[in-house]
Design brief:
This protein is α/β, with parallel strands linked by helices and about 290 residues long. The chain is built from twelve helices and seven strands. The protein is globular, with a radius of gyration of 20 Å.
């Protein structure tokens, strides 16, 4: 009897020990592009700072990219090889989503962050990287896989496909505007209004797209407006709530108001690590803060 009581209390103490900030302390996960050469895999693990650590590593292949992006991105944009990799670290409630990138040429950190909110990802530190310049499509698939593995939270295929569509639409718009961050800002602001007001009617959403574009001094073609409107109709129909959305970005906005980098210590740490291990000094860090710059 005494033994059962002790074991019972031990289980309770273990549960309390892993409970932090309202969420379980889950495991970090790394995903690597399947087509990385052995040396490049080691390079990515060194960049993420996980060599010698007991962190799960999952390989993402091109088939998984196509499953996520087929019909959304062109075959040329998806490519035939999986190179970009990701490191996902679950964080306590209130942390939000923060994304850093290195050698990702087509998808910015802000685009990843916007898409991850739509997919249902919450409270995570994310790094998307490659050993050389790549589009970054494989990293999105990897991030979503890593997050689900790390947290045990299932993300619906409807949510992740809509998130992928948002990322690709934003990337295309960024190319058109020659300003990826302004494109990401537009998408975020329109999405905020859609979720805040529970909108799903394209007739109501379309003027919001036009109004936000006007406020940002962004010129949209009729095709752009239609595409963004249709995307927002789908986002408005997801299970994503305004409250959940706001919790993921509110910390970023508070830091914007204060004028303080939201995670400068983390940036400095990873830059120093990269410089020490591989002798490189340039790292491109982008989170939602920068889309308002």
């Amino acid at each position: 009897m005494l033994r059962r009581i002790i074991l019972g209390w031990t289980g309770v103490l273990v549960m309390l020990a892993v409970w932090s900030g309202g969420v379980l302390a889950y495991t970090s996960v790394v995903t690597l592009g399947q087509n990385l050469a052995p040396g490049q895999r080691q390079q990515m693990l060194a960049y993420f700072g996980v060599i010698g650590k007991n962190i799960p590593v999952i390989y993402v292949n091109n088939r998984e990219e196509h499953q996520l992006l087929s019909g959304i991105a062109s075959p040329a944009e998806i490519g035939t090889r999986s190179i970009s990799s990701a490191y996902v670290v679950p964080e306590p409630a209130g942390y939000g989503i923060r994304v850093a990138t290195h050698h990702i040429t087509w998808v910015t950190g802000a685009m990843y962050a916007n898409a991850l909110v739509t997919a249902g990802v919450k409270n995570a530190k994310v790094v998307a990287a490659a050993p050389f310049g790549v589009s970054g499509t494989a990293a999105l698939a990897g991030i979503l896989i890593a997050y689900q593995r790390a947290t045990g939270i299932h993300l619906s295929s409807t949510d992740t496909r809509t998130a992928a569509e948002e990322m690709v639409t934003t990337a295309h718009l960024g190319n058109t505007l020659h300003n990826p961050n302004r494109a990401a800002q537009l998408m975020l602001l329109v999405k905020r209004e859609v979720l805040k007001n529970h909108l799903q009617n394209p007739t109501v959403i379309r003027p919001i797209v036009l109004n936000m574009a006007s406020q940002l001094h962004v010129h949209l073609t009729a095709a752009d407006v239609t595409q963004i409107t249709n995307l927002m109709v789908r986002i408005g129909g997801l299970s994503l709530t305004y409250q959940s959305f706001d919790r993921q970005v509110s910390g970023v906005e508070r830091q914007l108001v204060a004028g303080v980098p939201i995670w400068s210590q983390f940036v400095n740490w990873i830059q120093a690590l990269w410089h020490k291990i591989l002798g490189l000094v340039h790292v491109s860090w982008i989170d939602l803060t920068h889309i308002f710059a």
